[in-house]
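PROTEIN DATA CARD
Card holder: Sphingosine kinase
Chain length: 332
Origin: Homoserinibacter gongjuensis
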Amino acid sequence: MCHDAPDPSRPQRAAVVYNPIKVDIDRLRDAVAAAESAAGWAKSLWLETSEADPGIGQARQALAERVDVVIAAGGDGTVRAVAQGLQNSGVALSLLPSGTGNLLARNLGLDVNASRMEASVELAFTGVDSAIDVGVIEIDRPDGSSETHSFVVMAGLGLDAKMIANTNPELKKKVGWLAYVDAIGRSLVDKQVLRLRYRLDGGEERFTRVHTILIGNCGSLPGNILLLPDAEIDDGLFDIVTLRPEGVGGWARVWVGIVWENGVLRRSTFGRKLLDLRQRPVRALRYLRGRRIEGRLDRPEEFELDGDECGVITAFRAHVDPAALLVRMPRE
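Structure generated from the sequence above:
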């Protein structure tokens, strides 16, 4: 779906797709009214999400109304749904961080401080557009049905998805991302491993046993955790990591690899030189890269997209849709 070139005789117009549970709607309306007025834009279109439609239909309605930018005001689920609705449309997504994770905004280097809402809103009316990749994944359910979803950050199977499914929603409201620490503790009791047959970029089929597999479009998580250190959001590639630690020592080694090596050492020239001198990689962490990956599991497993639990699946086929989404970014 292509967006028509702007009509110079028609004032530009934004749409706001908002999750009423996640945003302070009165403050948001005031901020949008001030920003649209200052930019000389028409009054914005307001579209509320629902449990039945978390944003895909609203984004498509905004496209039908020929808006010039769509502001996603909600958590990671709202962002993912609006992104799917805008995919390959030529209309930009503008982010208003409102949830716990704000995963896409973090990976784009945007301000995720909800107290600075007005500045995030202003960006929608004054910023410039940049193209990023979108992940597309087709999943098979245990009942034989199939679904296709888009994601902007990462898809996960196994322990990662169990962790999200185990997160206490009340605790998450009170302490935010720290609630996942509680969930990790409960998920680590699960000693089961994934048995996965997979094929990368049409190559030979391989078999692996892992606790978790993550298919990443980008690689940063809250808490300064750089899970996929080489992932770039606009390189047309997935960065994939499998985790297969053994025992408490194995989990400690994974934690050192992700938090210390990826999160600290890789961020400096000196740190990267130290890593280059190290002889052995972390055996429990394996990194892959490709444009397409398909996999089949020996039993139904928990699955997540961009930090939202998505039930259980038995197989998946994922590919990168390069430069498929425009996002509104600050001017240099």
